C-alpha cells in the first residue's frame, strides 16, 4: 500500500493505491519464487477513513498447467510467468480500452439506490455513496478486465469488468467475455444470458450460476454455440 497521505485542501477524496506480488511456495510454505510488483486495486481515502470504489480496477490471477497470468485489470494486459515464476510474455489488446461514460455511472447509481434500505430516502442513499462518484476519483477510462479463466484446452477467457454495487453480496455479473487463443490473439466474443455468471469452461461446455428475478440461484451447464459474424 502506498503511504497514506492527507486529503487535499478543499477536496473530499483521493485515491489510495495498493500494490501486489505473486509468490509460489513449496509444501512447507517456504517461498521459492516471486513475481514482480504490479498495481492492485485502489480505495478512496477520505478524512474519515477509506471506502471501496465501484470503478476501481480489480487485480486478477489466472493459473494454467505451466504458466500463471496476472494483471491489474486496468488495461487489457495479461502478464505471463512461467513455471519458475520468470516473466515469459505479455498479451495486450489496446483497442479493448473503453471510456467511462456518464451513462454507465448513472446506471450504477440507479442500481445502488435500488439496493439501498427500503426505509431510507433516496437522498440519504445517494449521500452515502456520493464520494464514490466524485469527479476527482472517477477514472477517465473504465477498468478493462474483471476475471481471467484458462480453459483445459489452453484458450484464455477474459471477463469484461463490471462494477460492484454496494449492498449486493454477490459478485457483479458481466455479460461479455473475450476468448483468446493460446497465443493471446482474440478469437471470439462470448455473451451470457441476463443474470448469469460464468464459473468454469471445459471444451464447448460452460458452467453458469444463474440468478432469477427473486434472487434464487441455480447451476446450469450449457454448450457454446458459435454464431456467424
Compact overview of the structure:
The protein is mostly beta strands and 229 residues long. The chain has helices at 102-114, 122-128, and strands spanning 14-20, 23-25, 31-34, 38-46, 49-51, 60-63, 67-71, 77-82, 87-92, 98-99, 141-142, 145-150, 156-160, 176-180, 186-191, 196-202, 205-211, 217-223.
Topology, please?
Blueprint: E1 14-20, E2 23-25, E3 31-34, E4 38-46, E5 49-51, E6 60-63, E7 67-71, E8 77-82, E9 87-92, E10 98-99, H1 102-114, H2 122-128, E11 141-142, E12 145-150, E13 156-160, E14 176-180, E15 186-191, E16 196-202, E17 205-211, E18 217-223
Antiparallel strand pairs: 1-4, 2-3, 4-5, 6-7, 7-8, 8-9, 10-11, 12-13, 13-14, 14-15, 16-17, 17-18
Which residue ranges are poorly predicted, with pLDDT under 50 across at least 5 consecutive positions?
none
Shape: globular
Rg, rounded, reads 19 Å
Fraction of residues in helix = under 10%
- Number of DSSP-assigned strands: 18
Give the SSE string.
EEEEEEEEEEHHEEEEEEEE
Distance separating the two termini: 45 Å
Strand content: 35-45%
Strand order in the sheet with the most strands? 6-7-8-9
Amino acid at each position: 500500500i502506498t503511504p497514506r497521505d492527507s486529503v487535499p485542501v478543499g477536496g473530499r477524496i483521493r485515491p489510495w493505491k495498493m500494490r501486489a506480488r505473486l509468490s509460489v511456495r513449496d509444501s512447507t510454505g517456504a517461498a521459492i519464487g516471486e513475481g514482480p510488483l504490479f498495481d492492485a486495486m485502489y480505495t478512496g481515502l477520505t478524512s474519515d477513513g477509506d471506502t471501496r470504489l465501484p470503478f476501481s480496477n480489480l487485480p486478477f490471477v489466472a493459473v494454467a498447467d505451466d504458466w500463471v497470468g496476472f494483471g491489474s485489470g486496468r488495461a487489457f494486459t495479461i502478464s505471463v510467468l512461467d513455471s519458475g515464476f520468470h516473466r515469459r510474455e505479455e498479451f495486450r489488446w489496446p483497442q479493448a480500452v473503453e471510456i467511462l461514460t456518464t451513462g454507465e455511472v448513472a446506471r450504477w447509481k440507479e442500481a445502488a439506490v435500488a439496493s439501498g434500505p427500503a426505509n431510507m430516502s433516496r437522498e440519504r442513499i445517494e449521500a452515502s455513496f456520493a464520494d464514490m462518484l466524485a469527479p476527482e476519483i472517477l477514472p477517465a477510462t473504465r477498468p478493462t478486465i474483471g476475471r481471467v479463466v484458462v480453459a483445459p484446452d489452453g484458450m484464455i477467457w477474459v471477463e469484461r469488468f463490471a462494477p460492484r454495487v454496494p449492498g449486493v453480496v454477490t459478485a457483479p455479473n458481466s455479460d461479455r467475455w473475450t476468448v483468446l487463443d493460446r497465443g493471446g490473439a482474440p478469437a471470439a466474443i462470448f455473451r451470457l444470458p441476463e443474470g448469469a455468471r460464468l464459473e468454469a469452461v471445459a471444451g464447448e461446455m460452460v458452467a453458469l450460476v444463474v440468478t432469477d428475478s427473486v434472487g434464487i440461484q441455480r447451476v446450469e451447464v450449457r454448450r457454446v454455440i458459435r454464431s456467424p459474424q
